[in-house]
Design goal:
The complex is a heterodimer. In chain A, 3% of the residues lie in helices and 45% in strands. In chain B, 37% of the residues are buried. Classes of the chains: A mainly beta, B mainly beta.
Chain lengths: 618, 281
Amino acid sequence: MNSPILFNLKKYLPAALLAFLLVACERDLEELKPAAFPTNPEVFIDGFSAGLNYAVFGGASPSAFDVDNQVTWNNSSASMRFDVPNAGDPSGAYAGGVFFTSTARDLSGYNALTFYAKASQSATIGLIGFGNDMGPSTYQVSISDLQLSTGWKKFIIPLPDPSRLTAERGMFIYSAGPVDGKGFTFWVDELKFEQLGTIAHPHFTILNGQEQVETSFTGVSKTIGGLSGIYNLPSGVNQTISLSPAYFQFLSSDPSIATVDASGKVLIAGGPGNAVITAKVGEVTADGSFTVQSQGVYQHAPTSSQDADKVISIFSDAYANIPVNYYNGYWAPYQTTLSADFDVNGDHVLNYTDFNFVGIEFSSPTVDATSMTHLHVDLFIPNALAATGQIRLELVDLVANVTGTSTRSITPAQTQQWLSLDIPLASFSGLSKRTNLGQLIFVDVNNNISGFYADNIYFYNASTAPAAPTTQAPVPTHPAANVISVYSDAYSSITGTDMNPNWGQATAVSVVQVQGNNTLKYAGLNYQGIQLGSSQNVSAMAYLHLDYWSATSTSLKVFLISPGPVETAYTLQVPTTGWRSLDIPLSSFAPVNMSDVIQLKFEGNGDIFLDNIYFRKN
Amino acid sequence: MCKMKTLTRYAGKAFPCMLLLAVMVFFVSCEKDDFQKLEKRNWQLTWSDDFEGPAGQLPASANWVFDIGTGDGGWGNAELQSYTNAPANVSLDGQGNLVLTAIQEGNRFTSARIKTQGLFAQKYGRFEARIKTPYGPGLWPAFWMLGESVTTTGWPQCGEIDIMELKGQEPHIIHGTIHGPGYSGGNPITKSYALINDRFDAGFHLYAVEWDQDKIDFFVDDYLYQRIKRDEVPGEWVYDQPFFILLNVAVGGNYVGFPTAQTPFPQKMTIDYVKVYQEVN
């Protein structure tokens, strides 16, 4: 295109050159600066400023925006009009879009985007801001929930650290939805950039101003969030802004421990050691910090090898965990133990610090661990021990109100490595019931373990033993003449005996076939009676014999009962490996009247198989 | 722009360059007299407090006493704060400043008001303070003076000179005011001074009055924005007695209105120094 200016210059160039030489001194090339982007501060005054474009967000009403020549601020000739649709409007669910320029602008001389706005009713604009250019959108600032009224009012979006804004294309972004389902109209006018001396006292936060401390390990990364800014407006009230990480300069006090990039992503580079991550916006230091306590390379706990269907898991990445109320009860006033749990690339670890005692609760619902055989816990003591420590594990049955304890010693040589504990539940001293387990408690017995990591906490059933006997009980050999039999295939038993009298028991009684032999089964024993068909005089007998089998019981007693009732128990050892045959001297049951025995009773827990119950002579 | 080196290399072109240079110098020198032309006066320092001392220390008891509590009906103005002499509300900051702090505790406010009553008062002279004001709706800082006779003749007969007052919702405007018999309370003699594209809490500014038997002049940063002459006062001129100095931060009250939920607290008034001069001939 032949510009008229260019044409004239060609004609008058010699004269112009002469004039230039007469008036000007020699040009110094050092004074030349690279061509900068235009600094035009106007976005919309009475129309689109040069190079301004508009694009609608997907899902937004495409006709929401228009230029209005009637309703304007200060009788100017045009304003921007936005029609927010009603809820359910087929053209779009909300009004939202971006005003951006084709050529970038140098906005480093302005510290605010300002405009006048009003609405057809009192309304809230969900989002209004600067910096979205439909592309990289590096330096975004936005205000949420801007309150508009029906009168024109000036609004200010402060721009932090304008020195960064040398090539910006995203001028203005808005998003507004219906209020109580109803659409409305709002207008924006005199939209421009300004350098305001009337906004003051900028404050910024990372992590919402919190001082966060985290234990971490080499290779773990975390992005700093909670970024915000507050400026004081000319009216003396504060305005909170959201701003993108690019405005912040992030700093690490020790890059050999942790580095942080321009987007606020922290990467743990080494350890052990600490690094503090802070940030500045321009010259203003942001409130908040992130202290990394790196332990160096993380040693993962050993992999768990139990079958998932034999496991009830409280805390493990290898199994589905049951619902847990809390991993630290913070039991005031005596508990000092704090939690600083961490996650190393998906491996979650419990980390207890300032340890004296701490409880994990799983009571909604409680755990029935009757068919479990062991508790597994992986422990790691990260700090050195001056002397042997002891950690006591306590399991609490919340319904039976009993606590079982198991103590493990840890020598100084056993710190800084994973210790895998597989503790038989039967060895928890005092745990007479485990049908409603609800708490696992750790206690620092010698007051010298300052903290520990825990992982892979679960109950499991290690028994490879069958749930029922596969061979029949040993066939009795005593001569029938010397026997009064209660239950056996080898003898004629007392007639009319009720093997399952209703005494309100929970026990389920059945007869099962084991190698063709009738065998009595008590499932889920609490107590169970045998009502003899008639009173028996066993005073001439010497022993009560019985064969019993149990893989799961931890408590079993047998009683003989004479009228009164007078009953005496005899404790049977459980669990058994295979069938156990026992001859119990009748003198053990004193003072039961041996000439008038009417009932037997079993008390305990678990599943019991019984056979060959009989009285015999010597 | 011409450079000296070009003059030596291109002697033939020196003349146009020098003409340009001379023209520019002439215009530059015109700028200096744009500021006010005020008569020079000779001031001798008679009293001052530079607020030097360690952080947390109360201001010197040789210079200041404290007003405590809520006064009579919020000090006559329905002010909301209760004044204290606790360091949290009034103390040095260890950097050569005195800080008065208004603190919000739930629905209640504490702050401080100090004065030289009984310790220092002066008739006529220049009274100045370098101050960074607080901000926010409902904040009302003041640097002011009362006639000594307040204890005998009462107010407004004793006279009041407000060297600087500010309403926190307009942090860019200060007001200079006098109250006297016939022109007090809601209709004193007052004038405002506003900063363009700036605000008083963004930095320190110098607030002063120069007062003699004929007039009281009000200054911000050595700019005279108000002159009240003796014969222009619509009532009695009561400024021929010693006045003492007061500094305070009030919260709420008839002058400024209520603080709102959006008023940022705590708020600080930072005073670098107070200086008093007498004119010498």
